[in-house]
Amino acid sequence: MQQRLARGEAAALGELYDRFASLVHGLAHRVVGEEHAADAITRDVFAHLWQHPDAYDPGEGPLRSWLAALTNRLAVQRLRTTETAALARGGHGTTEDLERKLRHASVAARADYIVQSMPAPLRAALELAYFQRRDYHQTATDLGVTDDEARRRLRLGLQLLATAHDAETPGAPPGIGGAA
Q1: Strand, coil or helix: what is 104?
Q2: Helix, strand or coil, per DSSP, at residue 132
Q3: 32 with 41: CB under 8 angstroms?
Q4: Residue 146 pLDDT greater than 60, yes or no
Q5: What family does this chain come from, according to its entry (predicted)?
Q6: pTM for the complete prediction?
Q7: CA distance 170 to 126
Q8: How many other CB atoms are found less than 10 A from the CB of residue 93?
Q9: How many Å separate Cα 83 from the centre of its chain?
Q10: Nearest to 51 by CA among 5, 16, 17, 12
């Protein structure tokens, strides 16, 4: 795919956009909290990929993680710029409030990335337990698995989510854990 992009094949960019646009847009929206800004960041991420296809190094990890890291970096930059400008115009808050907001947005984006990336059985167990308020026994019944398997899925899913606060998690997409 990278070679196709380097040759200027627009179809390759279209395929990547179809595959990853919802991930990129969702992460951007989670950080900036505004649809128009998330749309702009999504365009910027794919424009960067088109203009610099060699910026992604497959040896560093999956393209999905690289795109998530790039999205987070651009979204945090945009949020920092807009919030700093608002503070300069006499807006409410302090630079400490801004940094806290940036950290919170980055952790939320990382948690979204983790949930979207986890295997479907773990995600399904967490969704039943969290959104439908099922205990492990009800979750097991709904999923058609044993109680032990439901507990294992819930425990593993929660352990993965707990890494959202840890910027240095092994295997984590670079730049997702912190305010970048």
Answers
A1: helix
A2: coil
A3: yes
A4: yes
A5: Belongs to the sigma-70 factor family. ECF subfamily.
A6: 0.66
A7: 22
A8: 12
A9: 21
A10: 5
